[in-house]
Amino acid sequence: MSEVAISQDRSLHELDRLAELAEDVIRRARAAGASQAEVAASIDTGLSVNVRLGEVETVEHTRDRGFGLTVYFGQRKGSASTADLNPDSIQATLEQACAIARYTEEDPAAGLADAARMATAFPDLDLWHPWDIDTAQAIELGIAIEDAGRVHAGISNSDGASVQAGEGLSVYANSHGFVGRERGTRHALSLALIAGDEDGMQRDYWYDSVRAAGDFISAQALGNKAAERTLARLGARGLSTRQCPVLFAPELARGLVGHLLGAVSGGALYRRASFLLDHAGKSIMPAWLNIDERPHLPRGQGSGNFDAEGVATVDSALVEGGVLARYVLGSYSARKLGLESTGNAGGVHNLIVEPGAADGERSDFAGMLRRLGTGLLVTEVMGQGVSVVTGDYSRGAAGFWVENGRIAYPVEGITIAANLREMFAGIVAVGTDVDPRSHVLTGSILLDRMTVAGE
Known about the structure:
Elements: H1 8-31, E1 36-52, E2 55-73, E3 76-82, H2 87-103, H3 135-150, E4 155-174, E5 179-197, E6 200-210, H4 219-232, E7 242-248, H5 250-264, H6 266-270, E8 291-293, E9 316-320, E10 323-324, H7 331-337, E11 351-353, E12 356-357, H8 365-372, E13 375-382, E14 392-403, E15 406-419, H9 420-425, E16 427-430, E17 440-441, E18 445-453
Helix pairs in contact: 3-4
């Protein structure tokens, strides 16, 4: 076995131990006068190895514990947490949470999620795949990945390769009698390279992230991809200021979906700090476009049977026929808005942006370039110039200028700008080139027009 792996039997034992601890603390909180209580407890273990130029830079073994308790005295709430699971620390955490609750103001929206919404079915989502790799094997793999990239002509240096293996166990329990156990693994490989020519230096990278190590692309393929991306950036130019169609590569397209989530999430809405306030049931995207939440995908990066409050997760449309079907709510934000939880306390679970276009055709990446015709392919964005309040979007960018559906040359030093409302409404197509490394599953996204500010 690896030095960090929790065996299957051991993981189940640890989950039972966390569940027993959570239930015991909830009983003690009720005995202390709390009308409701909830506990989130976790154990995370990992191995992380970084190599550079064939030499080991860092080796890190982690074993982190977390324990968080929230108590409610009526509608007064108190929360406390600790990273130590010994009895004295747990008792101190309980006392702190109760003390805080006794002195906070009442909040009409405070409290557990509705008992009737608790998950009752817990199918196996195939999320537990411990990686039997030790430190020496991880170092060997990291060096192989880096060697595969460095061998390419034109690659002059390396920022290093990393190999990460991780396992997580978590329990959420509350005074409704709900106890939910989850265990999952996440593993990652990455490589960053540097290339240079008479025009200067360029850096780029690639990575892979999976639940099961058997799903990784090969070390050779990862090294090749990182090298190809880095070399493709050599000779980058600027652009004059213009308006043109813009194609977001899949790994960036999911960021656009992330901005949508930020605007339709409960916190922004009840604070009235969203440009999509009061837009449920209204058209925000083209009529052919659908975005669905699918929480139970086997091995999904965001799969789960219940949310952070124990509410059962269900398949649900977020955008249907271009219309915003619902918001993204936990129980607190739902109560603030006079609505019901959508089972999204803690975030969304596997959003799928359906590929398509107004003409009904689906396109791979090459087809998306042809749809773009002449315009900008964005492969990197920089800066934080996005406002969920106004929808204004302005970020530094790099990528490629495309002419007649073919990449012409790399570009850098530009800014792309528009308003998210117009960007969402102006989606021309979504590609079939889905990036599977995230809980937001989308292909490249083509927008009809953005302002590109350059020279």
